[in-house]
C-alpha cells in the first residue's frame, strides 16, 4: 500500500498501545506493519459482515428531546418525583447504550432499583459530515438544554468522557448541579502514568490531524474499531467466535454476547474539531485541571464546583487511571467531607456495565444520589 499517509503513521509504530477514542486508531500502528498486513485483509472482510446486531437500550424509555447532537432518553415512571438524575454517557466512539447494557446488568436499572426515581441518559448521535466543525461548546450547549428542560437542577452522573463534560457544565453553572458523580473520568489528564497520558505527550498533533483528514473532517468510528481490534487480533477475529460456539447452548451467555457485540461492532463517528480540541486542550495541555479551559464563553475553574461529589475509579483501569479520577478531590471546591472516593475492582468498561460493580458499588451510589 503506497498512500501518502502510511509512511508518517509508520514512524510511530513503537508507541505505547492505544486504548480509547483519542488514541485507539493508532493501535493499527502499535501492532506493527507486519501484523497489520497479516490481519488487514481479514479485518476488512469481517467488517463487511452484518450480523443484524445493532445497539439498543435494555430498559423501556421515551425520547424527551431530540437535538442535533443527542436524544435525551427518559427511563422514569410517569409518576416519578424528585431531582432528575442525568447520566452523561461516554461520547467516545461507541453508543450510549453501555449505560443500559442488558436486562439484569444495567446501570439505569440499578439506579431505578435503588431509590433514584427519575433517570435520564444522553444518547449521543454519530457525527455526520455537516457536524465536522462542531466543538465542545456545541455539546455543552445541548447538555445545558437538557438540564434546563428538566427544571434547571439535576444530579449529573458522568461516565468516562461524559465525566469531564459534566465537570465542565458544573463549573460553568454550579447552581444547576445538585450532586456530581465522576466515574472513570479523566479530570487531571497529567496525573498518574497511564498509556493515554504517555501517548498524548508523545505523538504530535499532526498525527491526529492526519486521522481526521482521512475521515473527511470526522474521526471515523470504523477506523477506531479497526485500531482496537488490531491490538488483539487473535481474540477479536478468532477466539470470541470459538467462545460463543462453546456456549451456544447457554441462552444467557448468547444474549449478553449479542448485546456486547451490538455495542462494540457499531462504532459512531466524532466531529473532527471536537476530537482535536479534546486531544490538544484536554489531553496534551490539561487545561481543565489547570483552570484554563474556556467553555461557553467563560474560563472554567473546577474550584467553582461546590456540590457533593462521588469519585469512582477502577483498580485495573488502564484507560482512565485512578489518579486521573481521584485528582478531582484536590481540584473541586467541594468540602472534603462531602466528597466520596471509591476504588472498585476491575477495568474501565466494567465500571459502567460490569455485574460486580453494578451489584457491589452502584447501589450505594444510587442511595447517595437519592439522599436529601
TrEMBL record:
GO molecular function: hydrolase activity
Taxonomy, superkingdom: Bacteria
Keywords assigned by UniProt, alphabetized: Hydrolase
Gene3D superfamilies per UniProt: alpha/beta hydrolase
InterPro entries according to UniProt: AB_hydrolase_fold (IPR029058), DUF3141 (IPR024501), PHA/PHB_synthase (IPR051321)
Protein name listed in UniProt: Alpha/beta fold hydrolase
Origin species: Nitrogeniibacter mangrovi
Amino acid at each position: 500500500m503506497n498512500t501518502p499517509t502510511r509512511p508518517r503513521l509508520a514512524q510511530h509504530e513503537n508507541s505505547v498501545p492505544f486504548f480509547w477514542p483519542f488514541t485507539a486508531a493508532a493501535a493499527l500502528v502499535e501492532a506493527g506493519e507486519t501484523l497489520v498486513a497479516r490481519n488487514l485483509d481479514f479485518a476488512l472482510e469481517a467488517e463487511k459482515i452484518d450480523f443484524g446486531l445493532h445497539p439498543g437500550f435494555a430498559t423501556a424509555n421515551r425520547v424527551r428531546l431530540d437535538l442535533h447532537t443527542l436524544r435525551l432518553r427518559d427511563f422514569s415512571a410517569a409518576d416519578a418525583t424528585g431531582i432528575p438524575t442525568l447520566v452523561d454517557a461516554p461520547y467516545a466512539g461507541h453508543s450510549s447504550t453501555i449505560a443500559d447494557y442488558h436486562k439484569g446488568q444495567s446501570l439505569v436499572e440499578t439506579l431505578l432499583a435503588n431509590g433514584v426515581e427519575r433517570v435520564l441518559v444522553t444518547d449521543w448521535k454519530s457525527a455526520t459530515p455537516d457536524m465536522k466543525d462542531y466543538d465542545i461548546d456545541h455539546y455543552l450547549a445541548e447538555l445545558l438544554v437538557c438540564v434546563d428542560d428538566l427544571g434547571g437542577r439535576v444530579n449529573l452522573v458522568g461516565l468516562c468522557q461524559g465525566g469531564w463534560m459534566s465537570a465542565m457544565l458544573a463549573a460553568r453553572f454550579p447552581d444547576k448541579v445538585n450532586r456530581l458523580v465522576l466515574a472513570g473520568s479523566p479530570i487531571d489528564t497529567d496525573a498518574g502514568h497511564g498509556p493515554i497520558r504517555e501517548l498524548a505527550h508523545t505523538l504530535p498533533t499532526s498525527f491526529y490531524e492526519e486521522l481526521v483528514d482521512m475521515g473527511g473532517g470526522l474521526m471515523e468510528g470504523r477506523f477506531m474499531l479497526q485500531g482496537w481490534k488490531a491490538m488483539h487480533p487473535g481474540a477479536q477475529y478468532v477466539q470470541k467466535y470459538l467462545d460463543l460456539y462453546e456456549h451456544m447452548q447457554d441462552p444467557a451467555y448468547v444474549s449478553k454476547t449479542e448485546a456486547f457485540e451490538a455495542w462494540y461492532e457499531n462504532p459512531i463517528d466524532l466531529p473532527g474539531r471536537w476530537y482535536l480540541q479534546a486531544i490538544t486542550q484536554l489531553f496534551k495541555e490539561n487545561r481543565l485541571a489547570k483552570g484554563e479551559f474556556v467553555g461557553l464563553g467563560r474560563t472554567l475553574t473546577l474550584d467553582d464546583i461546590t456540590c457533593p461529589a462521588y469519585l469512582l475509579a477502577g483498580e485495573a483501569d488502564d484507560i482512565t487511571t485512578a489518579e486521573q479520577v481521584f485528582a478531582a478531590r484536590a481540584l473541586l471546591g467541594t468540602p472534603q467531607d462531602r466528597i466520596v472516593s471509591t476504588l472498585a475492582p476491575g477495568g474501565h468498561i466494567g465500571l459502567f456495565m460490569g455485574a460486580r460493580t453494578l451489584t457491589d458499588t452502584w447501589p450505594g451510589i444510587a442511595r447517595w444520589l437519592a439522599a436529601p
